[in-house]
Amino acid sequence: MSQKCYKCFRPLTTCFCPHIHPVDTGVKFVILMHPREAYKQKTGTGRLTSLSLIDSEIIIATQFDDNKRYKELLASDDYYPMVLYPGAEAMNAAECDFSLKGKGRKLLVFLVDATWIMARKMVYKTPSLQTLPRLSFTAAYTSQFHIKRQPAEYCLSTIESTYYLIKELQDAGLSKPGVSVQGLMDVFALMNKIQLDHKKNRSI
Q1: What is the pTM (predicted TM-score) of this model?
Q2: Which pLDDT score is estimated for 100?
Q3: H-only helix segments in 132-181
Q4: Are 111 and 165 in contact (CB under 8 A)?
Q5: For residue 147, is pLDDT > 70?
């Protein structure tokens, strides 16, 4: 059995850590990760997302209203919490009213990291998530997740969703300007390449 990096959870031979250079976007990201993503997925991008962003963290559960850390974040006066999740009432970055942010509250974005079916269940089992203001995208994006079939072209991985959201937050003046988040997509492309090469070598 090959040795594993317990930071990125990859084998040491394909450890991503040397390729990850965390950046501070001025936004706090909290990844609500399903246990299957945390412990079963070899290509989960939620962990890579967290490693790439300063002031981010992962909470692992199937529902979160009983989770101590989640409740602390919701109750904190330091943050203005929102959730990145589609819906008729979801706003894009340009539409958001962040008047509270001017009172010293930092934008906190919850990201639900799971398959689409499991993500819906996680939100359904966490009523407080349903009450949070929702964020979505201004533009339509196509996933570059070549090694994993998505339910639809517009379905994005966690790392892609975070990248595009940060870009739109920057355009709206809600995230630190001039901070490059290209590293998110670079490590995502590397992950795709490693998995595709592995698949190709196995077929030879």
Answers
A1: 0.88
A2: 55
A3: 158-171
A4: no
A5: no
